[in-house]
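Running this now, will post back.
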Amino acid sequence: MAAVFLLLLALASPAAARYTPDWASLDGRPLPSWYDEAKLGIFVHWGVFSVPGFDSEWFWWHWQGQQPPDPKCVSYMSKNYPPGFSYPEFAPHFRAQFFNPEEWADIIKASGAKYVVLTAKHHEGFTNWRSPYSWNWNSVDTGPYRDLVGELGDAVRNRSLHYGLYNSLYEWFNPLYLDDKKNGFKTQKFVMQKLLPELYNMVVRYRPEVIWSDGDWEAPDTYWNSTQFLAWLYNDSPVKDAVVTNDRWGAGCACKHGGFYNCEDKYTPGQLPKHKWEKCTSVDTLSWGYRRNMKLQELMDLPAIVYDLVSTVALGGNYLLNVGPTADGTIPAVFEERLRGLGAWLETNGEAIFATKPWRVQLENTTVPVWYTSKGPTVYAIITARPPTSTLKLSIPKTSAATKVTLLGSPAPLPWAPVYPNAALTVLLPELPSTAAQAWTLKLDAVQ
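Update: finished.
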């Protein structure tokens, strides 16, 4: 299959504007417009790691990979499982018996998100679809006996959401990968026999509009053949016009090469970056995968999520918010509550988020933090805490006689007065409606 894959690369039909397998060419590809307009996505970390539901999705590595092992993980196994129990024995217990992709898609749609990214394969190597290159270590041959990638993809697309897939380049304990690693990555058995054929098959079968790559950091992009894969993806794949990718394609690529930049998990730039970026973060602040022992104080509350979304979008980023479902296929109720709460806030304030652009100034610290976004001639001032008084001074906007101020969710114009001639304004606020998100948006027309 690897030979067939490389032959497809070589025989690809010529086109007017083709990308060559080098970063200078690939980095010049314009990002499909849907992605910047979407702003909000939901990340879903789900796999065999959801069965122990302890520590994090890195449980297997922390238990049996790193040296010395994490004593918490060792103790957890010794207290709860018989001697000699191996990690692959968790797979039959990954049953997903309550997994209803329609219900998941309804919850995700209710969050206001425009795209979804599911873990097709995490570092454990288990695929949530019937990969021909992962025999007996996939969700169709064992565990759920279901094509989880395909089922969720159909459900979210039926709700007009974009569908993306996370794929780990490396696999902790794959013998082919370990051989290549032992050889200093001078050999590519794992890449040619497992990774590339599997990636090609996944793209052709499921047509993801996001390929969220990870697990790249141990080897350079030349080992992973990243530029060859991306050239095929952008030139000849069935998603060549719509697909977006991130920046995790080899050691040193993060924040430098690829489509949008993740840079690092939970990346927060602090100022407006020059390149399109995405912040990925998790409702559970200690894990991406499900933890059975998570506590309420370890989870992001709704005001924190909304503030994170608003500040990310104001700085030109997309926001990818993660939840970890259980091994039986349910999204924990506390995660659902967060997602539905976010969607409720966006029903009123989404105009200030979706399809917006960063304004000339992104943040003003007045009596409360105010983040700015813009859409055409309109500027949005998003207030991320309840103001202490009924007036709010905005020092940044330049006003005119035509300036109009409204509160999203209420059509009535608000009284305002200039602070200086044609500069800054004080707005008389109405009684702000109660919202669990603790954020409100002023819409400013005819300001500069």
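The mean pLDDT is 95. More later if anyone needs it.
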